Amino acid sequence: MTTGVLTKMTFEDYIIQLINLKHEGSYWDFKRCWHGKKADLLHDIICMANNIENQDAYIIIGVDEDDDFSTHDVSADTNRKNTQNLVDFLRYVKFAGGIRPSVSVKTLHFGSDEIDIIVVRSDNNTPYYLSEQYNKRDGIVYANNIYTRVQDSNTPKDKSADIQHIEKLWRKRFGIDLSIKERYLILLEQIDEWELNISACRPSFHKIFPEFTIHVDDDTEREGWEPQSPFYPDPRMFFSPMKLMYHSTMIFETGLISCDGGRRYLPYADERTLDIDFKKDVLTKGNSNWGNLHYYFYDLTKLSGKLFNLLTEGTLNFFSRGGFGVNLYLIFSNDSEHSNFRDFAHRNYNCVDIKALRERHSHRLAQEYKGKKNESRILNLLIVSELYNYWSVAEVDCDLIPRKLL
After folding, report:
1. Of 61, 83, 10, 98, the residue nearest 401 (C-alpha)
2. Which of 171, 217, 349 has the alpha carbon at shortest distance from 276?
C-alpha cells in the first residue's frame, strides 16, 4: 500500500482540470472570446449564478471548443472586461430586490496566451432574476424569467427554467434543505424578516419562521469596560448572555454588549492578535508591558458578523445618536479579506504615527475605569484601527472578490 501526500489545489490547477475534461458542465462554460453582446454576457452570468449544483461557477474565456479546447489569447480582445467593469455593468441592471451576483475576473497565462475566467460566486440569494427587462440593441433579457444551467445548457432567454429547478433555487435561498445551524446563518441575513426585541421579556423572532428566536437574558446583565468604551458619549457598557434558539433547543450561545446607555447593541466580537512583538520594537519607546497587537473584528460570513449586521439593521455602524467615529471593531467580508489585512498590517505597522495618535486621542487615553488607567489597551486598538484605515484605501487583491470598502 502506498500513501499519497495531499496538496491544496490552486485556482490555476482547478481551471486546467476543467479544460482537460474537454466538455462543458453544469457550472463551467467555455468561450473563445469575450461576449460581443452585453445581453449574452448578462444572461450567462445569471444562469451561472443560478446553477443548481451549489457551486462557484466559471465562464472560461479564451478556450476554443472547435479547436480541441486549445487556448486562444484574449489580451487584445476589444470586448475584454476586468472585475470593476463587470461590477459596474451589473450595478445598472435592475435585479429583483436589488441583489446582484458576486462576480470577478481572474487572468491566467498559458505560454504566450492569456485567458480570463469570470468567477460567479455561489451564495444563498438565488434565484437571481430581473425586475425590469434588459432591452438593448444587442438583445433582450426578460424580466421575471428565472434562468438556470442544467448540465451544459442555459435556459433560453425567452423562457423560464423548469419548475423543479426553480423550486430548488428557492429552497436554497430559504435553507430548507440545510441543517438547523446552517439555516440559522442564512436566516440571520434576512434583516427585514426579523422582529427585534432586545429584552428579557420578549425574544426576537423570524417573522416567517418564528421557531427561530433570539433570547437576551438581561436579568444577569453585568457592567463592564472595554477599550472601545471611551469612544461613546456614555462610556458604560453592559454585558448580557444571548442565546439563539430553535423551538426550545439552544443552537448558538454568545453575548450582547449594550453601549452608550443602551443606544447601540452589539454582539460579542471575535478576537485575534497580530504577530508583532512591541516589546522589541522602537515604536513602544521602551514600554516593556506591550505585547502583540490585539484586536476585535466581525467577519460578515460568521455568526458574530451576521448578528452585527442584524442588530445594526444593515448599517454596519457601531455608533449611536446618528454619529460616526473611530471604528475600533474591524469589519471583514470574508476570511480572504481578513487574511489580506493581516498580511498588510505585518508589512506596514511601522507606518503608524503613534505620537500623532496619542495627541489626537489624548482625552480618551486619559479616561479611567474604577480608578484604573487603560491607556495601553486603548492605544493598542487605535494602532490596529489606523492600519485598517490604511488597508481600506490600499489597492490590494482579495482572492477573486472585489473588496467593498467598509
Report:
1. 83
2. 349
Structure confidence by residue, pLDDT tens digits, 240-255: 999 999 999 999 999 9
Q: How far apart are CA 22 and CA 186, in angstroms?
A: 36
Q: What does DSSP assign to residue 7? A: -
> Which of 391, 366, 390, 392 is CA-nearest to residue 378?
366
Residue 140: pLDDT over 90: yes
CA distances, 259 to each of 12, 242, 254, 265 (Å): 47, 15, 16, 6
- The x, y and z cell numbers of residue 166, run together, are 426553480
Q: Which of 63-77, 149-163, 226-240 has the lowest mean pLDDT?
A: 226-240
Instruction: Please state, in angstroms and rounded to a whole number, the distance separating the CA atoms of residues 216 and 203.
Output: 7
Residue 306 has pLDDT above 60, yes or no: yes
Cell of 388: 485598517
SS3 label, residue 347:
helix
Prediction pTM value: 0.70
| Residue 268 DSSP one-character state | P
In terms of domains, do 189 and 289 share one? yes
Could you report the per-residue pLDDT of 295-304, keeping only the tens digit for each?
999 999 999 9
Q: Is the pLDDT of residue 293 over 60?
A: yes
- Look up the domain containing 208 and give its range: 183-393
H/E stretch holding 164: helix 163-174
Same domain assignment for residues 151 and 207: no
Both 279 and 355 in one domain: the answer is: yes
Strand intervals (E) in 217-262:
222-224, 237-246, 249-259
% the chain with pLDDT above 70: 90
If one counts the domains in the chain, the total is 2
Q: How far apart are CA 396 and CA 342, in angstroms?
A: 12
Please work out, in degrees rounded to the nearest 5, the angle formed at the alpha carbon of residue 79 by the alpha carbons of 73 and 83: 90
Is 2 inside any structural domain?
no
* 242 DSSP β-pair partners: 216, 254
Distance in angstroms (rounded) separating the CA atoms of residues 109 and 60: 13
Residue among 290, 282, 275, 285 at smallest CA distance from 380: 290
The string of pLDDT tens digits covering residues 176-185 is 888 999 999 9
Is residue 82 within 8 A of residue 105, CB to CB? The reply is yes
The three three-digit cell numbers of residue 162, written as one number:
423548469
7: Cβ–Cβ under 8 A, 6 or more apart, which residues? none
> If you count them, how many residues does the chain have?
406
